[in-house]
Amino acid sequence: MQDNTAEIEAAFMACLLNKPDFIALCADKLKPEYLANKEYGAIYTTIENNSAITVPEIAEKCKLKLTDLVDLMNTVQIVSKVSFNGYAAMVLECYKKRKMSEVRQNASDDEIGAKIEEIQRLKYFDDTKTDAVREFLHNVELIINGKKDERLVETCFYNIDRTIGGFRKSELIIIGGRPGSGKTTFALNIATKMAWQGKKVCFFSLEMAKPELLDRLVKSQTGIEKYTESQIGEIVETTREIEALPLQIFDKAGMTFEDIYFAIKQEKNVDCVFIDHLSILKSNRKYKSRYEEISDLSRRLKCLAKEFDVPVVCLCQLNRQLESREIKAPTLADLRDSGSIEQDADLVGFVYRPEYHLRQVEPNANDPKHTLWEEKMQQVAGKAKFILAKNRRGELRNFNFEFKGVIYKFLEEENYGTMV
To answer: Could you report the per-residue pLDDT of 335-359, keeping only the tens digit for each?
Structure first.
């Protein structure tokens, strides 16, 4: 296992030189001798004795080159209490590893147990918070160093990931849309993209059988609109590639929430879960009404996401009433069956295709309005939008897509411009 003590101590010391007053955060938990680098230990002692000391004074007192200290300070771009505590905690862990190694090599058999127990009692954070805090600080460190947050699973749609980073572990994500709007295709596109990136994905299809989903997957991957005999080789090869992906499709008829729970538990190490869709999901529990059942299911889906520490993406039908509105773009109020869906979800997005709604109000061919209708259809043909309507992590935004229905594929547009 690689020893990265030098890098950790350098980052910790760079933070301390930039913010000497932060010594108060760790003085009762770290001692100068915990630092393997003796020069860093001397700097730590100097600051501990006088947190108002300047960097030139530190260089003079510790007999170090000022330019070296300035260069070290510049190795960190952002210095916060969170990042400082994270590095301090890692310095302590490095020290504990060194000490335990020394004990195992030098202590007698009678002494080893007691000495290792004494070392393990050294804690930077409270035991009840240690695991969660360490994971949080680890991800902060990654972000500070320009790396990806390990708790995010990218959708592999560039504009969405650029805005929200991806779906976060333990989140409940709702993707809503009217029947036929393309929400299953959109979810399947994301699930496949994740699987191509090596993520283990479980896709629970409560409505469509696996052969139907495979048809969509093959067409979206190959671009084949209609199968012909000459394409059979490509179709077979693509099917094999899809089957080799870490994408597990569950299509058992009548699957309940409990079935999904135990399937995820059995699969283990799942990176993302998709459920298509909430409106037909049932439970073994008894309820007085469908409203009560949906409310309970949305809460349990959120609990499932937290228990397995995995993003759960659940598709949801929208109320029929939006068809009677002049503006068809969905809003949170259009979520069907229960207001608790909006409350429990961390992210809510809608698949919106104006072409879908406009097609349903086609005038009679002899009607003078039909020409105007055709012009509008040409304007919106193939256009789609993913509307991010709720985001507990911050920004809301609409994302423009091109929808190729014959091959079940959403393609990103390069800009965020307003769509007709």
So the answer is: 866 567 888 889 999 999 888 778 7
